[in-house]
Predict the 3D structure of the following.
Amino acid sequence: MTLTVQNSALILIMHYSRIMPPVGGQRYFTSTAVFLNEVIKLTISLTMALYDISSNLPPSSPATTLFSTLSSAVFTGDSWKLAIPAMLYTLQNSLQYLAVSNLEAATFQVTYQLKILTTALFSVLMLGRTLSLRKWLSLVLLAAGVAIVQIPSKNNPADVSHVKGLEDTQAKFLWPRSMAEVRELGQAAMAQFQRRSATYAGIDKDVAMHNPQLNASIGLAAVVVACVLSGLAGVYFEKVLKDRSGNPNISLWVRNVQLSFYSLFPALFIGVIFKDGEDIAKYGFFSGYNWVVWTAVVFQAFGGVVVASVINYADNIAKNFATSISILLSVLGSVVFFQFSLSINYLAGTSIVLVATYLYSSSHDRSRPPPIRIADYEKTTITGTPNYYDDPSFVLPKSPAMVEAMSTSRPGTPASERRFFLRDERKVSGKRDV
């Protein structure tokens, strides 16, 4: 449940942070957000790893012993194995920002579920996992549902908040029906000429800054590559977490420390310095940041820690299918906050994706509990051991006192037991006569 809410809220906040008005005339650099995401994950993982190690040490242990134990656990012989998924996760996070900047939040959430298919394929190839026919069918339905969502709808109205929207000849234009809509249309048109450069390239840059355009082709390509990287990194990380041959005593939080530590290098050198280094030096590292951007960064950092925990205690594909429930929340949030229009293609594709989720999660190979057996006389004791007198082979002994009591006018036993003893008495007397 925590992972579902986190995923749906993260996508909505990330999408809004990429289309909201620029802060101070500048939009934040995604490379800085990815780097800060890894820094926060490293801080959380370090804190939890120190707490985990301190619980296994004597209370009088000094801080130097604690940190030396953590250092030796982090930089162990097989820690280099985490460098591969660390680089893959960093590139995936960068592509995730690119995709969410060019797709609607609801469309991105559905398309991003292709990582379930890639994770399943890599699980079969790398972990030797066997999938049933039912699960393969659910994966095929998943791919079909995502493909249907990508079919463009011709009923979308033109976006007249920028000049590019008026150039789209395939879009449906909705004429204003009131004076208020006419004023809004005029204000949107005049906003294009308030800050414009003298060249065509300058105009494009100015328009792109204040009216970001969604490019579905770039967004779809970024999502597909991110899904492949997510599946490969997730399965590889699962293999490392569940491989106890190298160091069986290493904890999950130490693995998270290793993963976050190795993720800092590609995020810093490739993203911050190589990709956006010139612009960051000109405008500043935190240019374009506000509370929305910080919320997206923190949500993504906590989400990475939660995902690692789920992988350790559950199946990686099951984690992805559980995340699919966040589609419904993302759709509702997109309709409410971003005026997302639900087309027939989107509803049909999303429904198929949800059906695929149900087919995979509702597996029939679960073992049924054994049937409950009730004793014939239901006279067991509290401990579950049958009472001595509940044995059906047990017969009450016949004594002369009881036989004599039967001949009196005041029976000492109930009528059924009286008949029982009288019948036995006749049998005994008959044998004596013989």
About this structure: Residues 157-173, 365-384, 401-414 have pLDDT under 50 and may be disordered. The CA atoms of residues 82 and 259 lie 5 Å apart. The radius of gyration is 35 Å. The chain has 19 helices and no strands.
